[in-house]
Write a structure and sequence with these properties.
bacterial flagellum biogenesis, single chain, cell membrane, Helix Hairpins, 2 helices, membrane
Amino acid sequence: MKKFVFTNEKYQELKEKEDERLKLNMKNVDKEIDMAAAALHALDEKFNSERSVFESACKHGVAAGELASYQGYFEFLQDRRKDATREMEALLDRKRTLTEALLRVNNELRVLEEMRQEQYQAYCKEVAAEEAKELDTHMAFTIIERAV
């Protein structure tokens, strides 16, 4: 009796490996997003705390040179925040791309599994037909032997 062989076995294995790779990439991107969000939050806190210090200093009077230093530092912090925001947007775009790819691969795997089930059912019917044929042949020989 022949063994069941799924015709798309190698393709399914390839898609399963791709699914695992995409899930690992998604996990890594999620970690990077968490780190980028923490960095963005830290920059916001730093900016707010420095602004509070600046506002407090302004109440007591600030020299022109010190004011220029604060302005330069605030511009530096805002530039870093813009960079961090761009990085976060890039990571979120990457996550969207991975999500789409993961959905596509999962749909392909689902279709492949349905194909496997259909082929297995056809295989089972074929095996049952072969067994029935062998049983009929055996019964026919048994009847002939008894008749002789």
